[in-house]
Fold this protein.
Amino acid sequence: MRLITAGESHGRALVGVIEGLPAGITINEERINADLARRQEGYGRGGRMKIETDKVEVLSGMIGGKTIASPLAFTIKNRDYENWIPYMDPFTGEVDKKALTAVRPGHADLSGIIKYGFGPNARPVLERASARETTTRVAAGSVCRQALEAIGVTITGRTLVIGGVGDESKWHDTIRAARLDGDTLGGCVEITVHGMPVGVGSYVQYDRKLDAALAMHMMSINAVKAVEVGLGREFGYLRGSEAHDEIFPDGRKTNRAGGIEGGMSNGEDIVLTLTFKPIPTLVRGLRTVDVKTGEPVTAANERSDVCVVESAAVVVAESVAAYAVLDEILKTFGGDTLDELKSRVEERRAHARR
Ligand code: EPS
């Protein structure tokens, strides 16, 4: 499959095109909208989420509720665009009237203006670097999830840590304290893929390894700085006798590998842990340089979220995993129709049981 996304955070709309979906997948629009709504939730979100009510509009690739194998295109409107037309209109927008020159450490601002020659204004950079882009990843992922469920593969996610705190009962207090300090927080999210058939991915070539593909997709999520498979970094502290999952006549009794050995799924749950860095837009502002004057200043204080790890990051990670897992399943099994794919996956499951 291929997925291409487009859209600026305060532009007219977000756009996605998924190419390579098999024909015959039943897609429920309300499921997509429910996932989009879940992405907007969570303690620690900023004012923007009160403006938006993200809804998908599918433009092509489906008839009568089922995919027809042609590219599935969709849009999600930015309601906030109404307030930004003078600055963001594709033909008449005067972007320098919303200039951001006090570039934010940790954001794409500085490298982006150097790279694309935007003069002393990071607005055209941050509009696309914004995590608003994850809206399209969730809509695309929701479509993929519905295909995966039809072949018995489901994906769940949960927050493990917010701002260094593992105790869920303390998360809101932790986020509240950061907000009062004008600060932001990151955290960790765990993603589990259940029902994966054996042998998705391959050991035979580096770019066919399942863990390599999943890591690439997960690292592409805004703010993700680490992806771990199974025990991940903990492997560095263990002996082989403590690290591997022994095999018994009735299967494995542990899943330290996180469901992937030799770049292939081994039939156990795939378990990934993602670490998100704290959002780089801080109310208190970090020290930086104004790219217009060259003077030291406090970084721009745009409206922003304090923490997205409680809900948004979970659904984004689940959705990106759904796209990546379906893509890898299709690379391994192929199938022009969902029924073809389903029977090939079933055949593999039957073979693995033998
Ligand atoms: C973001 C800044 C904020 C966030 C945004 C990401 O938006 P705004 O600049 O409109 O206040 O709310 O996230 C979303 C819009 C979203 O849908 O998640 C940024 O600078 O990355």
Q: What stands out?
A: The chain has a mean pLDDT of 97.
